[in-house]
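@channel sequence for tomorrow's demo:
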Amino acid sequence: MGRKQMAAGVIRIRILGIPVDVIDEASLSDAIESLYALEDHRQIILLSFYDLMRAKFMRYHRQAIAQAAYVIPVSSLITWAAGFLKLTRPPLRRPYPFIIKLLWILEKKNKSVYLLGSTMEGVLKAEFALKTTFPGLRIVGRHAARFPSSIENDILEAIKKSSPTLLLAGSNLKGKHLWLARRRGYFSPGLSIWESSCFGVFSGRHSKPNYSLGARFVKSFFGTLVQPWRIILRFLLCMLFFLLVLINKFVKK
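structure tokens (generated this afternoon):
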């Protein structure tokens, strides 16, 4: 449960052995800008509760998170565990607002982004919206996230040649953030991140995510009606998580 000092204003802690980064709001811009000078490609992972539990028991998920530049918690269970274990408690961030903040940071320095998500129609609409909202952000390429494997190498080459500061990936990308981690060596120096909702919002197909407790309850309730086994799985995972956190707390004393 030790702490590791990284870039200025960033502290890396571990929850059940999985790295989690503590970056307060005042330090976020500097923390992101400190990555611009890196000579390799690095990923920012928005860590959900399910991501953490997969990483705990699945080696490749754990490796993907371990090699990330920053691991940003987006689950209240993760931030609760940090406080319970007497670690520096990271701020709880929400995925879509984090993407907006990240794009704003990039725009300040006229950095570039490559868009990989949605359908071709969706990604073109998203590009138009981003050019309007972030006029200082340079969009150097785009592609739909659903593509045949036969053209994947062409897409990877196009991303590499465009050398974006940020590869922004989203909906319809098979493998989600693991797709980025597996292909990290193909990309030029820069950053990448995957987030599920941003392309839907940018293209106008969906409204901004509502992270209120009531909205999440309604979404969970209707999801349970369609797939009732999900509530059982979540309950079992939560019980396992709480048990592991308790064991970790008392074993480390």
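heads up for whoever presents: Residues 213-251 form one domain.
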